[in-house]
Amino acid sequence: MGTRAMIKIDGKPMFATHWDGYPKSLGKDLSEARPTVKSIMAVAEKHSIDFANKSVLKELQKERLEYLVKRHKLPLEKIKKGIRRGGVISSEDYPITDISRYDDWAEYEYDIDSKTGQIKVRERSGSWRSTSDIGKWKTIRGKDKLRKVI
Predict the structure, then answer these.
(1) What confidence tens digit (pLDDT) does each residue in 76-114 have?
(2) DSSP code at position 129
């Protein structure tokens, strides 16, 4: 079962991940990364990106499609039509979607300040677009100092 998370940079939604979004996993990985889009994207990819900001979507989608062609040993045209080999389909077997369409149940939300490197996290429950049941922000890295992760 996935632990979904939303990753923002400077308050702007950039990535929605599918796996291990809790602070002891994704939070720890983010705290070890540089506060740049490329570094954060590399961390998010390890946690399987489901949705991404338009600014990086094209690049990520190209990588995902190349991965699927190799994984399923099918031509690109079939992959684009949604055809896959085998009976076990995981989150990595789907194309990455524009984050403006994200309305999933992210359990955690991260916000990274690109200037200071500060990372905040809070628990969420309910649909992403809802504002109910949002926890308080906790800093897990501030001024390049790693703080104890929850």
Answers:
(1) 999 988 888 887 677 788 889 999 988 777 899 999 998
(2) T
